[in-house]
Design goal:
This protein is of the alpha/beta class. It has 2 domains: 11-155, Rossmann fold (3-Layer(aba) Sandwich), CATH 3.40.50; 181-344, Rossmann fold (3-Layer(aba) Sandwich). The protein contains 14 helices and 12 strands. It has helices spanning 41-61, 77-88, 102-106, 113-129, 138-148, 195-204, 222-231, 248-254, 266-269, 276-281, 293-300, 312-324, 326-344, 346-356, and strands at residues 18-23, 26-31, 68-72, 92-96, 132-135, 153-155, 181-188, 211-218, 237-240, 257-261, 286-289, 304-307. Strands 9-8-7-10-11-12 form a 6-stranded parallel beta sheet, sandwiched between helices. A 4-stranded parallel beta sheet has the order 3-4-5-6. The two termini are 32 Å apart. The model has no long low-confidence stretch (mean pLDDT 93).
Length: 359
């Protein structure tokens, strides 16, 4: 049942064990889950296993598919795919968008050595038994290939619907004044982000009332960030609750650039945050505080500014640069749109993936 990121079942689905509906012409079956987020390991495990267990009977009753396509994380959902695959004689494809348990270890979400060792053994078991493993970044692909070899690993990069996310949408929003240069973060307030970079940059830019940070979304780190902004009296940071997808192009249009502040770490060098691609599709340049794959993507295609991770001063200077040079922001954004049109539209990505998938 829909519950992310607040770990609360959405009102239409509360109290229900099973819901069948149709979305864009596709039949969707939703099953019960114990919703949980944050650093409480027991609750997180209950969340993961509840869905892995409740979804298995439904998977067994559905019409026999050609393939079972399963998302990780949560890695435990791979157990559902493995059992269903064995019982129904259908191969499963594991789509890995984040490495688990490695990410849980690096971000301090799980510290128990027994649980981490169990997670690593489960990871290897599911990789070995998968028909194919689909990786979202080169870093994830390299990690998986080191475990099971590269023959069964396919690439399915993050992308964007370039018809839904496009430039030229003119609208006003209540959180940004016409004279302001707003810098947008839109997405989940997660552990992989270095929020102190935004807090410190806002502090450094106090003397620039025309520069504001618009932070849209929710997640496990949001409450701490809101408290810190209030304690430091940072009026140039504005928090907005989740907005519907169809409102996002207008938000990108009124903001000068999109900001992505990542933490340091080897794991994050191999990530490509999904929020980058809708921004570029709307001709919103990206200011990335990070390194690795995302940095190379932006620099090689000249569609953003990259500063070292956790460097608040450099981040503030990049923000000030685009605030003072809107024509540069427009040119970076234009190149970003050309990039996603060429390489990262979903039709292009999925079409390539399907052609690579053995019959």
């Amino acid at each position: 049942m829909p519950n992310y990121p607040k770990a609360e079942i959405f009102p239409p689905y509360r109290g229900k064990r099973l819901v069948r509906e149709e979305i864009d012409g596709l039949p969707v079956t939703r099953t019960w889950i114990y919703p949980a987020t944050g650093r409480n390991v027991i609750k997180r495990l209950l969340c993961y296993w509840s869905f892995a267990i409740s979804s298995l009977p439904v998977c067994m009753r559905e019409p026999r598919p050609d393939f079972i396509f399963v998302e990780s994380p949560p890695l435990f959902l791979g157990c559902t795919a493995l059992v269903c695959s064995r019982l129904r004689g259908v191969p499963y494809i594991l789509n890995v968008s984040d490495l688990w348990p490695e990410s849980a270890r690096q971000f301090g979400i799980v510290r128990n050595k027994v649980l981490l060792a169990f997670g690593e053994r489960l990871e290897r078991l599911l990789y070995r038994n998968a028909y194919r493993i689909s990786a979202q970044t080169d870093g994830i692909r390299n990690h998986i290939a080191a475990i099971v070899g590269g023959a069964k690993v396919m690439m399915l990069y993050n992308g964007v619907d370039i018809t839904a996310f496009r430039p030229g949408i003119v609208a006003s929003v209540p959180w940004v004044e016409p004279h302001e240069a707003a810098f947008l973060f839109a997405g989940t307030f997660g552990y992989q982000h270095c929020w102190d970079v935004i807090l410190d940059a806002a502090e450094l830019l106090r003397a620039r009332p025309d520069i504001v940070f618009l932070l849209v979304g929710d997640g496990p780190e949001k409450a701490r960030l809101v408290d810190q902004a209030r304690l430091r009296n940072l009026d140039n940071i504005r928090f907005v609750e989740w907005r519907p997808v169809n409102e996002m192009p207008a938000l990108f249009a009124v903001c000068r650039a999109t900001v992505v502040p990542l933490r340091k770490g080897e794991l994050l060098k191999g990530t490509r945050p999904s929020k980058i691609f809708p921004a570029l599709a709307c001709e919103s340049p990206v200011i990335l505080s990070g390194e690795g794959e995302s940095a190379r993507l932006l620099l090689d295609n000249r569609c953003g500014i990259v500063v070292p991770p956790e460097d608040s001063s450099a981040f503030a200077e990049a923000v000030k640069r685009l605030a003072d040079h809107p024509e540069e922001a427009r040119e970076l954004g234009r190149r970003g749109r050309l990039l996603v049109e060429r390489d990262y539209g979903w039709d292009t990505l999925v079409g390539s993936w399907l052609r690579e998938l053995p019959a």
